[in-house]
Structure formats: C-alpha cells, structure tokens
C-alpha cells in the first residue's frame, strides 16, 4: 500500500491543467492540489518548493535562495488569485481585498523597461531585476497575468475542474470539464458507480 507521502508526490506531479502553460496565474492558483481523503499537496509549502515552482515557470533563477517570508508572499497571492478565479467562475463579484492585492502586486515594482545610462556604451532600456527583488518581480508578473486572464477572451472559458475533490481551475477547450485525464477518469467512474447503485 502507498504511503501518504507517495500519494501526495504522485498527485502533485499532475500534468498542467489546460491554460496553465499560457497563464502563470492559473498555474499559481493550481499549486495547492486537493487530494482524496481531505488531504492537500502544496507545491509552495516550503521555500525550496516555492523556489522550484518559480524556476519551473521561469519566474526566478533556480538558485534564488528564497526565504520563508518569500514563500509566504507567494502563497498569499495564490489565495487572492484563487478568490478572483472562483468569483469569476461563479459569476459573483470579486472580493475587494483580492482585487487590491493583485493591483498592489502589479504596481510594487516597475514593469516597464527603464532608461539606463552606461558610462561606456551609453543609454539603453532595461527592466530592473535586482536579486533582492526577485519575488516582487515574480509576484508582479503573476498578478499582471491574472489581470490579463480575467480580461481576455480566455476568461469566458475559465472553469473549475468538475471532478471533486479536485480544486484546480482550467481554460476549457471544447466540452472538456476536467483538469486532467486522472480527474476525467475519476468523474466517469463516479458516474458509473452512481448508475449501478441506483439500479441495484
């Protein structure tokens, strides 16, 4: 029998939900995975995991040396982005605190290329990315992507995975209602079981 650690590792290694590759905000929202039995796998649960997640999504170098305060900031933005996505999917007004958190993350650092003047080569434009602000830049990029996702044509196809207990979001393509084949198989098995029990 598999240990809970093996089960969590397997569940956390799920393929990207549709839309995650285009939208890091969607990937962030899906980084806390609900597991059967009331358990969760948190891909940002430790600074090392948060650093791996940021590097995998090309939002920070692999050796960034994240501290717990940085991982906490990332998890906090995740909850705000999840709140916005859930509100949108449910057709409900967003919580003002969630909107404010995303706007604050977007405006915390410069997002445009600034003018820099090098003594030898002269003027050029560059987006500042000091190592002390790696997480702030990552948060700004994710927040900007969340705003883009919610105001783009993809917003109309944004939905929640239809296979409980999964809590992931996806950008729907066609009639697919699940974030992964695993969730689709689980939903079909649950429907088949329900049909068998009602006919017995």
Write the layout of secondary structure elements.
Layout: H1 4-12, H2 24-29, E1 32-35, E2 39-42, H3 47-56, H4 68-90, H5 96-107, E3 114-118, E4 122-126, H6 134-151, E5 158-160, E6 169-171, H7 181-199
Antiparallel strand pairs: 1-2, 3-4, 5-6
Helix pairs in contact: 4-5, 4-6, 5-6
Structure commentary:
- The chain contains 7 helices and 6 strands.
- Helix 4 (68-90) packs parallel to helix 6 (134-151) and helix 5 packs across helix 6 (134-151).
- By secondary structure, it is α+β, with helices and mostly antiparallel strands.
- The model has no long low-confidence stretch (mean pLDDT 85).
- Strand 5 and strand 6 form a beta hairpin.
- The strands form 3 sheets. A two-stranded antiparallel ribbon has the order 1-2. A two-stranded antiparallel ribbon has the order 3-4.
Overall geometric form: elongated
| Range of strand content | 5-15%
Query: What is the makeup of the main sheet?
Result: 2 strands, antiparallel
Strand arrangement in the largest pleated sheet: 1-2
Low-confidence stretches: none
End-to-end gap:
31 Å
Report the mean per-residue pLDDT as an integer.
Answer: 85
**Strand runs, count:** 6
Helix content: 40-55%
**What's the helix count?**
7
Radius of gyration: 19 Å
Assembly state of the chains shown: single chain
Structural class designation: alpha+beta
Write the H/E string, N to C: HHEEHHHEEHEEH
